[in-house]
Amino acid sequence: MAFFQAVQTYSQMREVIKAFAAPESKLSFVAVKGDPGIGKTGTFRKEVPDAFVLECNTTPFGLYTGLYEHRDAGVLILDDVDTLAKSQIGLNLLKALCQTDGTKTVSWNTQAADRANIPRSFLTKARVLLLCNVLDGKGGNFEAVLDRAHCIHFRPTAAEVHGEVHSWHGDAAIASEVYAYIGGNLDRILKPTFRDYVKATQLRTAGLDWRAMLKARWDEDPKLSAAAEIVRLAQRGESAYATAEQRAKKFEDWGHGARSTYMLYQQQVLDMLGLPRLKKAKKAKAMPAPRESSDFETLAVKKSESPKVVETLIDFGN
């Protein structure tokens, strides 16, 4: 299986884009996967406005035709390749197009090319970027395609998405009330998307219950929501959630499954929240026993300053 490097911030993603799009770039093939609604395509369009974007929700021959028409492009962005990656013909096209050689030969050896009055093969030097929500194809050709790529898993946290929306929500007519409400619930949002902001604003304008829509979407997977709540309580230092056994027991008591199921969901939650691991609960330090002494000063009550309390803030978004 190909290794996907995790990228969790938009600034890091823009660095990848700039490195890929640079005129003398050696990154001839990059594959980026990530959940829908986080701005994968839009981010690339902004950073590389001259790149040609081919929508891959078409037939493999339709893709071949588009590739031929834009064979001289410096950069090709293939958007939504999820379905194409499951087609053997589509994989053959990707395998040829995504060779790491400077010049690549792409072919379609059937009469369909003749009828369309285009050659059965052509040369291109275009660097290629694949964008997809998932990449779950199987077989040797699929592995051969990914083996050629620099693979990126773009998974921004809810806080990261919220910050990105802040940079454009005025222009996109996102209601301030919607933006503030989502911002106050970032620790419960495991699958952030720009579309929450847009749809909630539309419902609000229509006089409908936009908060109910958001809550329902955030809690659509009960097991995932339960694991997220347990992780949040553990992160806050609740003693009843300090160990994996305690957390798994709570998960089971709530009717969501055994320890093995909980551990799978816990890892999903940690990944979605951008947390490497759960923090271990700190053991309270035992107070030293008072020192016995016959010294008169030890019997005197001395006035002392109140101890300073240091507040520790845990950022659940990053």
Description of the structure:
The chain is an alpha/beta fold and 318 residues long. Helices cover 41% and strands 11% of the residues. The chain contains 13 helices and eight strands. The model is unreliable at 289-318 (pLDDT under 50).
Key descriptive features of the protein:
318 residues; alpha/beta; six-stranded parallel β-sheet; two-stranded antiparallel ribbon
What is the percentage of strand-forming residues? 5-15%
Strands, count:
8
In the predicted model, the low-confidence regions spanning at least 5 consecutive residues are 289-318
How many distinct domains? 3
CATH architecture of the largest domain: 3-Layer(aba) Sandwich
Superfamily (CATH H level) name of the largest domain: P-loop containing nucleotide triphosphate hydrolases
Q: According to CATH, what is the class of the largest domain?
A: Alpha Beta
Give helix and strand order, one letter per element, not per position. EHEHEHEHEHEEHEHHHHHHH
Helix content: 40-55%
Rg: 27 Å
Mean pLDDT: 81
Structural class: alpha/beta
**Total helical elements:** 13
